[in-house]
Design a protein that fits this description.
heterotetramer, A alpha+beta, B alpha/beta, C alpha+beta, A: alpha+beta, C: seven-stranded mixed β-sheet, six-stranded mixed β-sheet, 21 strands, globular, disordered N terminus, binds adenosine-5'-diphosphate
Chain lengths: ~80, ~230, ~600, ~80
């Protein structure tokens, strides 16, 4: 069955302590390749049937209204896997 | 006539019976409300209790914010009914956008349970009228996702309009911006905070005080305030 | 992923017709003589489904085959005084003690050691989940948890993986269930490096009339499975199974670990309590290790008839599971209930109100047999007692470990004493900075001690205390203790010291000790020296309980705790429960008021 | 600065309680388009400099050894954003 992927990230202007802690831990391991880390979510929605435009639109709506909290997060992608 | 305060039970609510006990200890009548109903049973005020509604799985409070009773709670709150969100209840209020900003994972990553000192910043809300602004109180705090965040603009507005209701003292236990522990809406009827006033209402089962072990009852005044504010309206 | 070879259902008929077919009993952990006994019991070879059931139920973990002969002492070394308040003793999911005023307390401690090493967070979390379900199945509301932990050296790199994982797993599951954590232990010793001990205790309270037992009585009563769906979790976790033995050549993945869902379990708690209040349940059993195999055979054995189950009715998370896998699955957060046909509708209405899924698997019969069908054919037809009760019992050889004399002779009196103040200071600082004396609040601050509003004592007190009756103040106290090093030197006395310590820790709170539960963590029972340690520890505990006049109400044995051939120190964790008629009169361990006098009691 | 995205999902054969609860909530809201939901993580690593093969290899290593728990999770992607 087809899958729609929804990606959600914390808003860039807001604090992401988990990302910051992860970046700190990576630096502690001696790697200086990455200067920052941000951690968001990745949803896989299994579609019961075909992926039509209507299904994609519904996924987009769900992503914005339910899977993310628009006050603190952005939906960065809604796409067919 | 006893003031009727409803306590909503969502699947995964944990401190609901404790909130009911606190209401009774404050002299009110506790009314159990069910997440799946659209019925507020004529209550005068509402508590959204602590816990892990729906496992807090998507985001804390997110799934509960979409449950049937919340549409009634939101209308009642907009009509001026006193609503208190404690911990998970605060998260539900934020997810319902009755209060601004967001609550995220504690900055240190762990769940934390401690007796927390707070300053009451706003004593003119429905849930804080029995305090004086500047009062320092101790009530238990226990959460994994209590870090308060909002944009600088929002934070400045909250400060400017006096909407920060409580601030952490001594230790900021979760990385909350500007040490914010709780908020009120402009009207002062909707209040949310991460620490648990209902766990500081019965001597012997609250936080330690200099006087005696587990004797702290600073939380009682939240519920007494609500009762007073309901009685003042009728 | 290759497509699975079509799985041929091995029916009872087929088993009778093909006696010579080779079966992977050894891979399932059964010995040749055990397999032969199964053939004798059935009068034919077992079907693969029956083999799955026997193998998990006859595993050490489920059958107590090496420990049974020793554990009997707990039932034998008792005075009438000791059993006076015992409503349910050893053998049920958990013991139940009458604490007066119509109230009863049920508590039990259990290990989840190995899974917590493989995946610390989920292993520890599901350990809490499992023990809490034992408490629910007695008809009680769980009211608190405790955890007794043993880890390797604090400065070993792997400890940094295990400790935070275990602690956050316990914290996550217990906090999410809304159960206060009221105490426990944490100990570091390199002997536990690759074999940490994670022992979780749960305690619940009930009114006398709410007591429920795990039995299937009443012909025609329905057998209902409810809670989480069944997945491929922990298949062969109770014994050792290579899942390929069931369908060679299939590339299907079966998870090595189980993921807990505390939210599901919290809903299950409330749902079960509502079912009890409505008197909608005749018998009930939680699903732990050995899943449906265990629940069906135990319910049927404890009943008065038989049971007929249609396995196709099990709601699956993974539709590719075979019948054998469904029988062995250890998926968490499931319960099985026996319900009268008249009450089925009301039962399902409650289930529905809590958004829990349920399916009726079959019913209680008068045949005395446990019969299980799959795709229209019978794949299991056994006397349930042969699966659940009359498993093998071993009198394993014991051998006195000769090294023990040497270890005892090598006492601390041979060590150099500090001669100067500086040395003494350095030693004191070393002690103060040692992991085992250090403050444990990094752990305990991750546990909710306030929820439910009845915690009268918790960390850093010697024992936890919980109010049971909000009117009268009636309550109980609990403490867990063990010292593996003492037991290594002398398992008999070491076990008694653990008992005495837990007893004292309860007594000093102001409560009167009344009952014991224990979790016996040892190395391999096939090692005669370990078996000697085990036998001595059990004897010490049983004798100590008789002397103190408090019964063992239940517990758990965990064998095979070892790294390579090196067993852990024998670690019998003892939990003592005491009662107090008013928690308002508890005695805390801290200073209370200026001017109080200090006394030192004892010798 | 360039960003490397790491995507981590719970292993398909394991229970994903968060995804399950989310799928249940979506169904309750009246949508029957999606039959299952799984929730994983999405990391954005900010690279200090150019994305070379060595940087990608390091991101891959970090993804497997640090950003995911291989006992219960799979790394499903490591790529330049
Ligand atoms: N893993 C744990 N879980 C819960 N409580 C714990 C745990 N470890 C220690 N504690 C609690 O911390 C307190 C101090 O423990 P400890 O330092 O071992 O003291 P003691 O030596 O007096 O037993 C006790 O109240 C004990 O119950």
């Amino acid at each position: 069955m087809p899958t729609i992927v929804v990606e959600v990230m914390p808003k860039p202007e807001l604090l992401d302590p988990a990302g910051k802690a992860t970046a700190g831990a990576i630096a502690k391991q001696g790697s200086s390749t990455f200067s920052a880390v941000r951690i968001g979510k990745r949803f896989e929605l299994t579609v019961d049937g075909e992926v039509t435009d209507a299904v994609l639109a519904e996924a987009q709506r769900l992503a914005e209204e339910f899977l993310s909290n628009q006050v603190i997060e952005d939906v960065v992608a809604v796409k067919v896997a | 006539m006893a003031v009727r305060i409803g306590v909503v039970t969502f699947p995964g609510s944990l401190d609901d019976r404790d909130a009911q006990r606190a209401v009774r200890l404050a002299g009110g009548e506790a009314v159990a409300l069910w997440h799946g109903d659209h019925e507020l049973q004529g209550v005068d005020a509402i508590v959204l209790p602590g816990g892990f509604s729906y496992g807090d799985y998507l985001r804390c409070g997110a799934i509960a914010a979409h449950s049937p009773i919340m549409s009634e709670v939101i209308s009642a709150a907009n009509a001026g009914m006193p609503v208190l969100g404690i911990c998970n209840g605060f998260q539900i209020l934020v997810e319902s956008q009755l209060l601004p900003g967001g609550l995220i994972r504690n900055d240190h990553g762990d769940f934390i349970c401690r007796d927390q000192r707070l300053r009451v910043e706003n004593a003119s809300t429905a849930w804080t009228s029995q305090f004086e602004a500047g009062d320092e109180i101790v009530i238990p705090l226990k959460n994994g996702e209590g870090g308060y965040i909002a944009t600088d603009e929002t934070l400045d507005r909250l400060e400017g309009e006096g909407l920060v209701a409580f601030r952490y003292l001594d230790v900021n236990p979760n990385g909350s911006l500007r040490d914010i522990a709780g908020l009120t809406n402009e009207r002062g009827n909707v209040v949310g905070l991460m620490p648990h006033p209902e766990h500081a209402t019965e001597p012997g089962f609250g936080p330690d005080t200099p006087d005696a072990m587990r004797s702290g009852v600073d939380g009682l005044r939240f519920f007494q305030s609500a009762i007073e504010s309901v009685l003042a309206r009728v | 992923m290759s497509t699975p070879a079509t799985h041929v259902v091995d029916t009872v008929e087929n088993a009778a017709a093909t006696p010579e077919r080779e079966q992977p009993y050894a891979a399932l952990g059964l010995k040749t003589d055990e397999y032969q006994r199964i053939r004798e019991i059935l009068g034919r070879r077992p079907t693969s489904g029956e083999l799955a059931m026997y193998s998990v139920m006859w595993s050490e973990h489920c059958s107590y085959k090496s420990s049974k002969v020793w554990l009997r002492q707990f039932g034998q070394k008792v005075s009438p005084e000791m059993t006076k308040n015992l409503m349910v003793g050893m053998g049920e999911n958990a013991g139940v003690v009458d604490i007066g005023e119509g109230w009863a307390v049920t508590f039990k401690i259990e290990s989840h050691n190995h899974p917590s090493y493989v995946e610390p967070f989920q292993g520890a979390a599901t350990g809490v989940g499992g023990i809490v379900r034992d408490i629910i199945s007695m008809g009680a509301r769980p009211v608190a948890v405790m955890d007794a932990l043993r880890f390797g050296a604090l400065d070993h790199p792997d400890t940094a993986r295990v400790v935070p994982g275990v602690v956050s797993g316990i914290s996550f599951y217990g906090n999410c269930l809304g159960l206060p954590n009221i105490g426990g232990e944490t100990w570091f010793d390199p002997i536990y490096q690759a074999n940490p001990l994670v022992n979780a205790l749960a305690v619940g309270v009930l009114r006398h009339e709410d007591l429920h037992l795990a039995n299937a009585r009443g012909v025609g009563n329905k057998v209902v499975l409810f809670g989480a769906r069944t997945g491929g979790d922990g298949i062969g976790g109770a014994s050792i199974l290579a899942s390929e033995s069931f369908d060679e050549g299939s590339g299907r993945k079966r998870p090595a670990v189980q993921v807990g869902d505390p939210f599901m379990e919290k809903v299950l708690i409330e749902c079960c309590l509502e079912l009890y209040r409505g008197e909608l349940v005749e018998g009930i059993q939680d699903l732990g290790a050995a899943g449906i195999s265990c629940a069906t055979s135990e319910l049927a054995s404890n009943g008065d008839g038989g049971m007929h189950i249609v396995l196709d009715e099990v709601l699956l998370r993974d539709p590719t599971l075979t019948a054998e896998e469904i029988l062995m699955s250890e998926s968490q957060e499931r319960m099985m209930a026996v319900v009268t046909p008249e009450k089925l509708e009301a039962f399902l209405a409650v289930i529905d109100r809590w958004d829990v899924e349920a399916s009726v698997l079959g019913e209680v019969t008068g045949t005395g047999r446990l019969v299980i069908d799959w795709k229209g054919e019978t794949i299991v037809d056994v006397d349930p007692r042969t699966v659940a009760v009359d498993g093998p019992v071993y009198e394993r050889p014991v051998a006195y470990p000769t090294w023990i004399d040497h270890v005892n002779a090598d006492s601390a009196s041979g060590l150099a004493r500090p001669t100067a103040g500086d040395e003494l200071k350095a030693q004191t600082l070393t002690l103060l900075g040692s992991a085992n004396l250090a403050d444990k609040s990094w752990i305990t601050s991750q546990y909710d001690k306030y929820v439910l509003g009845n915690t009268a004592l918790s960390f850093p007190e010697d024992g936890g205390m919980v109010r049971v009756d909000e009117g009268s103040g009636l309550g109980f106290a609990l403490a867990t203790d063990a010292n593996g090093r003492y037991c290594y030197l002398d398992p008999y006395q070491g076990a008694q010291l653990a008992l005495a310590e837990a007893y004292r820790n309860v007594a000093v709170t102001g409560a009167t000790p009344v009952a014991v539960s224990d979790c016996l963590n040892f190395g391999s029972p096939e090692n005669p020296e370990v078996m000697w340690q085990f036998s001595r520890a059990v004897e010490g505990l049983a004798d100590g309980c008789l002397q103190l006049g408090i019964p063992v109400t239940g517990g758990n044995v965990s064998f095979y705790n070892q790294t390579g051939d090196v067993p852990i120190h024998p670690t019998p964790v003892v939990a003592v429960m005491g009662t107090i008629d008013d928690v308002g009169r508890r005695v805390p361990s801290g200073w209370q008021d200026a001017g109080d006098n200090l006394y030192l009691l004892g010798t």
